[in-house]
Design goal:
Blueprint: E1 15-16, H1 22-26, E2 60-63, E3 69-71, H2 72-82, E4 86-96, E5 129-139, E6 144-147, H3 156-167, H4 171-175, E7 218-221, E8 227-229, H5 232-235, H6 242-250, E9 254-257, E10 268-270, E11 275-277, H7 282-287, E12 296-298, E13 303-305, H8 314-319, H9 343-352, H10 356-362, H11 366-371, H12 381-393, H13 404-411, H14 425-431, H15 446-459, E14 473-481, E15 487-494, E16 497-500, H16 509-524, E17 535-537, H17 539-547, E18 550-552, E19 556-557, E20 562-563, E21 566-572, E22 578-584, E23 586-588, E24 594-596, E25 599-601, E26 606-608, H18 637-646, H19 653-660, H20 666-675, H21 681-691, H22 725-733, H23 738-747, H24 752-760, H25 769-787, E27 800-810, E28 818-825, E29 828-833, E30 836-839, E31 848-855
Parallel strand pairs: 1-6, 16-22, 17-25
Antiparallel strand pairs: 2-3, 2-4, 4-5, 5-6, 7-8, 7-9, 9-10, 10-11, 12-13, 14-15, 14-21, 18-21, 19-20, 22-31, 23-24, 26-27, 27-28, 27-31, 28-29, 29-30
Helix pairs in contact: 9-15, 12-14, 19-20, 20-21, 22-23, 23-24
GO biological process, one term: protein K6-linked deubiquitination
GO cellular component, one term: cytoplasm
Enzyme class: hydrolase
Length: about 850
């Protein structure tokens, strides 16, 4: 590093100190200056309260004690709250490169003036601009500035601390090392790869391994064009290893995975180097085999050439490709940069912050939330929600390009980049923390993330204000015993209306049959596939399928005291302020691989579901007796139950999938089967009904550690040795009474195994329900009064709605593909495609996955 001559002025006026005064100036603050230790998160790319960075006009201030970073607008708040005075100010300057005699930029040289680990602006051409980083210490409140490096004059501790901060890596890599892909090396074979003139041309589909019948996990050898299957360790999808055998036979080193080729690159593996690599010449190498990389989109088992199917490709229609879209700028038109399969999060958050209740709850309370944020605001949900909402709605990070006549004048001095789009890296790191899926870099289901977000909003609500109340509604489930004709009514809380895809109601069945025959013939003969024919499903058919009765498997009739046929219908006991409708496009094949229905549904702009209002018990209906089904417990049930709890890998997946197909979150289904000891879908269903209103209902399964120490895993409060609800549910699911379970657990310090022994050894137990209930109510009095004063909070009203947003998915399953969001603002539709925000010309309302409706005032 070299000393920076220019000092960036700050509010109050930066004051440069003489060399002899530096040591004396820093003496009072030495106890507050720390050297980052292993495990410390050093934020030097992003402000904790805003999306300011060293690229911003005011730069970034890093606290030399907490290593949190703040923009110019927020650093004073941190100083006032903590009294921390010493900050490192980081600033990146961007200038136009000096032009050569021919008018082009001078040849690139290694730039020793860059030392910050920052992403360069995607809108800047690095051949035309140069960067210079500047670091200095700033001492508050007088804004004394000390240029760095300054080894001779600064105390050794300060110098070491400054070097450690500047050399630290991203805090997100430090928090989640397993979720970040390592930077791939460039293969040493890429630039001089020999390619045989064998005349091989790779078709856009219909591939098969040359040595076996596999049609997935196929790799194209970039030397001779052989298509062969991979091994499981390439991408966890299995294979017979023929690609590796081919390398051993021929020595041809590089292969690309078919189905991953896009204009941005592809998965390339080097057999010789035994690792994934980068191939800078990939476009050239693919062109040798007739593949135009710049016109390809990756799919699961074929390449898709954009020029082959204009208008019909799902990717093109949803993203409105081929149409010149007008960019939108200003408040409410800010995009979110893709962090690598983070589009599911971006689409949901764009829709969420288009809702006034969320805008008011977070952005409307910004001063209060920021002022009362904890000492580490990066780990506070409300702070990060407010930060994201302000970033999206303020317009501060969505400004139109400067007029051309001003650019030349500005470039003579220094380029001041306009930041368009914000990076939700800090937000994603926090909201996905401890979640095995959302914390990964893999694609996820936007609907599951929506429910995860609602859960976080519920758990972190600000006082009595809870904006997620606008989504909540009550569902009335009516189950009727087909033999006795008696009924049972129950209510549960819902946040999403899940509509089945009524494939049997397609209005173009003849076209679909003809297309399928042609497609199979083309695949068999390795010819290009025909133009896609998409099933056209009337929305009314989907709504009808939603309202029709479902058969209940293994229904136990309390009227007959035996299993019987049963049917269930669901209706709305209340209508929410905002109705979220999910089209159940995803299902599971016979091989348990997720699949997607590629259908077109004529979603209405105005939706009336008033006819789905629940009516409750009707005259002439007789209720089923309130008797729990007997559960036959095998002799080894206790041991089997304990083994099940210890090893969750043995969960009965068939029961899980039965519950998931009813529309319950997958993680909740896994917990239900787990906590009921693999005793079947019916018992697990009862567990779900009891626990579905709990805040962590859809959270991932956490394996309990039983005994006194482990009871806290279930959220035990410690009040009067209150037994955790999960353990109580396990015992009651075995047929024992709740008060019996409560007393057994209290007598054994909440140890499940000992509690079961206690129950079996106390057959003389007499139910003293009054005393047990009184103890339980005393222990939970405060919790009940605060959390559920009047049951679930709902905002009932008329069942008439209008469409204002929808999220669309492109790809073959929720584990792959891409999401975009369309939102109607100021009377026109706008498409939010990651960081790009444009006026929509043809919003594909028929291809959406999740739809957002708002209630129409009556």
């Amino acid at each position: 590093m070299q000393r920076r001559g220019a000092l960036f002025s700050v509010p109050g006026g930066g004051r440069k100190m003489a060399a002899g005064d530096l040591g004396e100036l820093l003496v009072p603050h030495m106890p507050t200056i720390r050297v980052p230790r292993s495990g410390d998160r050093v934020y030097k790319n992003e402000c904790a309260f805003s999306y300011d960075s060293p690229n911003s006009e005011g730069g970034l201030y890093v606290c030399m004690n907490t290593f949190l970073a703040f923009g110019r607008e927020h650093v004073e708040r941190h100083f006032r709250k903590t009294g921390q005075s010493v900050y490192m100010h980081l600033k990146r300057h961007v200038r136009e490169k000096v032009r050569g005699a021919s008018g082009g930029a001078l040849p690139k040289r290694r730039n020793s003036k860059i030392f910050l680990d920052l992403d360069t602006d995607d809108d800047l051409n690095s051949d035309d601009y140069e960067y210079e980083d500047e670091a200095k210490l700033v001492i508050f409140p007088d804004h004394y500035e000390i240029a760095l490096p300054n080894i001779e004059e600064l105390p050794a501790l300060v110098t070491i601390a400054c070097d450690a901060v500047l050399s630290s890596k991203s805090p997100y890599r430090k928090q989640d090392p397993d979720t970040w892909e390592n930077e791939l090396p460039v293969s040493r074979y890429a630039n001089n790869l020999a390619q045989l003139d064998s005349g091989v041309r790779i078709p856009p589909s219909g591939w098969k391994c040359a040595r076996c019948d596999l049609r997935e996990n196929l790799w194209l050898n970039l030397t001779d064009g052989s298509v062969l299957c991979g091994k499981w360790f390439f991408d966890s999808s299995g294979g017979n290893g023929h690609a590796l055998e081919h390398y051993r036979d021929t020595g041809y080193p590089l292969a690309v995975k078919l189905g991953t080729i896009t204009p941005d690159g592809a998965d390339v593996y080097s057999f010789q180097e035994e690792e994934p690599v980068l191939d800078p010449q990939l476009a050239k190498h693919l062109a040798h085999f007739g593949i135009d990389m710049l016109h390809m989109q990756g799919t699961e088992n074929r390449l898709q050439d954009n020029d082959m199917k204009p208008r019909i490709s799902e990717w093109e229609v949803i993203q409105e490709s081929g149409t010149k879209l007008k960019p939108m700028y200003g408040p409410g038109y800010t995009g979110l940069k893709n962090l690598g399969n983070s589009c599911y999060l971006s689409s949901v958050m764009q829709a969420i912050f288009s809702i006034p209740e969320f805008q008011r709850a977070y952005v409307g309370n910004l001063p209060r939330i920021f002022d009362y944020s904890p000492l580490d605001p990066t780990q506070d949900f409300n702070t990060q929600m407010t930060k994201l909402g302000h970033g999206l709605l303020s317009g501060q990070y969505s400004k139109p390009p400067m007029k051309s006549e001003l650019i030349e004048q500005v470039m003579k001095e220094e380029y001041k980049p306009q930041q368009n789009g914000i990076s939700p890296r800090m937000f994603k790191a926090f909201v996905s923390k401890s979640h095995p899926e959302f914390s990964s870099n893999r694609q996820q289901d936007a609907q599951e993330f929506f429910l995860h977000l609602v859960n976080l909003v519920e758990r972190n609500r600000i006082g009595s204000e809870n904006p997620s109340d606008v989504f909540r509604f009550l569902v009335e489930d009516r189950i009727q015993c087909c033999q006795s004709r008696k009924v049972r009514y129950t209510e549960r809380v819902g946040y999403v209306m899940q509509l089945p895809v009524a494939m049997e109601a397609a209005v173009n069945k003849d076209e679909l049959i003809a297309y399928e025959l042609t497609r199979r013939e083309a695949e068999a003969n390795r010819r290009p596939l025909p133009e896609l024919v998409r099933a056209k499903i009337p929305f009314s058919a989907c709504l009808q399928a939603f309202s029709e009765p479902d058969n209940v498997d293994d229904f136990w009739s309390s009227a007959l005291q035996a299993k019987s046929a049963g049917v269930k219908t669901s209706r709305f006991a209340s209508f929410p302020e905002y109705l979220v409708v999910q089209i159940k496009k995803f299902t599971f094949g016979l091989d348990w691989v997720p699949k997607k229905f590629d259908v077109s549904i004529d979603m209405p702009d105005l939706l009336n579901i008033s006819h789905l209002r629940a009516r409750g018990l009707q005259p002439g209906e007789e209720e089923l007796p309130d008797i729990s089904p007997p559960i036959v417990i095998p002799d080894d049930s206790k041991d089997r139950l304990m083994n099940q709890l210890i090893d969750p890998s043995d969960i009965d997946e068939s029961s899980v999938m039965q519950l998931a197909e009813m529309g319950f979150p997958l993680e909740a289904c896994r917990k239900a089967v787990y906590f009921t000891g693999n005793m079947g879908a019916e018992v697990a269903f009862n567990w779900i009904i009891v626990h579905m209103e709990e805040p962590d209902f859809a959270e991932p399964l956490t394996v309990p550690m039983y005994g006194g120490a482990g009871a806290s895993v279930f959220g035990a409060t410690g009040l009067d040795n209150q037994p955790p609800e999960e353990i109580v549910a396990i015992i009651t699911s075995m047929g024992f009474q709740r008060n019996q379970a409560m007393q057994a657990l209290r007598a054994t310090n909440n140890n499940l195994e000992r509690a079961l022994d206690w129950i079996f050894s106390h057959p003389e137990f007499e139910e003293d329900s009054d005393s047990v209930i009184e103890m339980e109510n005393n222990a939970n009095a405060n919790i009940i009064s605060e959390a559920k004063p009047e049951g679930p909070r709902i905002k009932d009203g008329p069942g008439m709605y209008e469409l204002f947003a929808f999220i669309s998915h492109m790809g073959t399953s929720t584990m792959s593909g891409h999401y975009v969001c369309h939102i109607k603002k100021e009377g026109r539709w706008v498409i939010y495609n990651d960081h790009k925000v444009c006026a929509s010309e043809r919003p594909p309302k028929d291809l959406g996955y999740i739809y957002f409706y708002r209630r129409v005032p009556s």
